[in-house]
Prior knowledge:
Layout: H1 7-20, H2 27-40, H3 45-56, H4 60-72, H5 78-124, H6 131-134, H7 139-168, H8 176-183, E1 184-185, H9 191-198, H10 206-214, E2 217-218, E3 236-242, E4 245-251, H11 253-260
Antiparallel strand pairs: 1-2, 3-4
Helix pairs in contact: 1-5, 1-7, 2-5, 3-4, 5-7, 5-10, 9-10
Amino acid sequence: MAIRRHPLDIHAEHVRAVEAAGVTPPPEWTALKERITAFNRMATPCRDHLIDAVIAGAPAEDIAKLRAAAFAEPAEPPEVGYAVLHAGYEELCAIYRPHAQANYQKIADKFDKAAAEFSTAAQLVDPDASAESIIVNNEEQRTAWAELPRYAARIDSLIAGLRAAAELTGTSTKRQEAQLALTVDATGLHRRRVWAAWHDTGSRAGRWGALVRLGATIRAATLDGFTEYSLPKPFEEKIERHDGMVVAVTIDPEDAEVAQAPTPATVAKSPKPGSMRL
């Protein structure tokens, strides 16, 4: 059975992932989080203060008050701690919320830069070309081929921060459909082939090489009007007659979707295209 995590822990995890990607949280957020962490560590604060008071030789009146508080401490209901955590969580969210969109854009810019480096190199040379075939190419192509895995790794390293930043704006990225739409513009492409490329683990540059080869654009999506990239429709079985014989034919409905979609030349492009299904 999965352990249910407090929303505060999830929120803090997202903020730290964004910070690991190079965008620090507001100072007031960090200060409050540290106070909440200190509160969580106070298992028996009254008893601890009583011990310190006795050792230090505090006045008897102070010791008596601390003793009474220490005796009452074990009976403290858990609701008190929950109330503090809930209030702290809401305040942390309120502090971070005005910065969430700008912080997402900062990570999106980093992601787009890494994606542009990868795509430029992938246009010069096939990422999956053999080392033997690359030897006869020019120096620029050999350099691009050698650097492609590093560029792909750079893109991968930014995924966690990008997703966390999106989550902090209120955009869910838990589903694969959201993760693909967040990082790839596959407008007008064959949906089943896009998903096959997304799950490609055998290519030298991973999914990114397969997606670029297919014609997709790697980029961080704008979150205004963000839409997940749908899974392909199931294959359909159709009975047909050929030369007097009845045969079962498998049809991919996504073939028809691509035939009806606008060609890349007629698709309007913007600096950061969205991810709506066409």
